[in-house]
Amino acid sequence: MALPPTIPTSFVPRPSAAAVRRRNDLSGAFAFFGYGILGFVLILGIGIFVYSSILASEQSSKDAKLANAVASIDPSIVADFIHLRDRLASSEKLLDAHIAMSNFFSALDALIPNNVGFTTMHLLETDAGQVAMNANGLAKSFNALAVTSDALAADGRIKDAIFSDIKVQGNAVTFTLSATLDHSLVAFVAPVTALEAPVATTSSATTSSTSSPQATTP
Amino acid sequence: MTSRLLPFLSLMLAVGIFFAYVNPLWNGKIAEQRAAIAQDDQALASAKRYVERENQLATAKNAIDPAALDRLKAFLPDSVNNIGLILDLNALAARSGLSLSSIDVTKNTAAVPAESSLPNAATDPIGTVDLKISAVGSYKALQSFLIGAELSERLLDVRDITVQNSANGVYTYQITIRLYWLR
Question: Which residues does chain B have within 8 Å of residue A73's beta carbon, measured at their own beta carbons?
Answer without folding.
Answer: 47, 50
